[in-house]
């Protein structure tokens, strides 16, 4: 079995500074990031909106300091003033 602790630690370090957000692969939506449980008790960065990232990989999330544009992430961090920048995907896009 492979020790995943170094992989988890290096991924946490990429997103560890305040103000670092994420884009998924080549996407344009900027997401807020928090830590979530991965495997073997390791914590790794995850999108606050819990949008699925198929085939989780350390390279799936790219760090950015751009402003968060994901409406669901903005709701989770309590910023409703900018929510009109993104159209809902499904109906009224409730959590």
Characterization of this structure:
The protein has 2 helices and 4 strands, in the order H-E-E-E-E-H. It is of the alpha+beta class and 95 residues long. It has one domain (5-85). The strands form 2 sheets. The protein has a two-stranded antiparallel sheet. A two-stranded antiparallel ribbon has the order 2-3. The chain is globular, with a radius of gyration of 14 Å. The relative contact order is 0.20.
What is this entry, summarized?
This protein has 95 residues and is α+β, with helices and mostly antiparallel strands. Helix content is 17%, strand content 19%. β2 and β3 form a beta hairpin.
Supply the key terms.
single chain; globular; two-stranded antiparallel ribbon; 95 residues; alpha+beta
Give the DSSP E fraction (strand runs of 2 or more residues): 15-25%
Quickly count the domains. 1
Kindly report how far apart the N and C termini lie: 37 Å
Contiguous helical run count: 2
Mass-distribution shape: globular
| Largest beta-sheet details | 2 strands, antiparallel
Strand order of the largest sheet: 1-4
The share of residues in helices is 10-25%
Q: What is the C-alpha radius of gyration, as a whole number of Å?
A: 14 Å
Low-confidence stretches: none
Which structural class is indicated by helix and strand composition? alpha+beta
The ordered string of helix (H) and strand (E) elements is HEEEEH
User: Got a strand count?
Assistant: 4
Instruction: Look at the structure and give the mean pLDDT.
Output: 83
Q: How are the SSEs ordered, and which strands pair?
A:
Layout: H1 5-14, E1 21-24, E2 33-37, E3 43-47, E4 61-64, H2 71-76
């Amino acid at each position: 079995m492979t020790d995943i602790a170094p992989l988890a630690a290096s991924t946490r370090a990429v997103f560890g500074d305040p103000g670092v957000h994420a884009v998924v692969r080549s996407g344009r939506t900027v997401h807020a990031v928090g830590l979530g449980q991965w495997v073997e008790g390791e914590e790794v960065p995850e999108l606050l909106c819990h949008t699925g990232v198929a085939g989780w990989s350390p390279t799936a999330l790219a760090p950015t300091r751009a402003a968060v544009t994901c409406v669901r992430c903005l709701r989770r961090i309590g910023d409703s003033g900018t929510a009109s920048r993104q159209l809902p995907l499904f109906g009224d896009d409730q959590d």
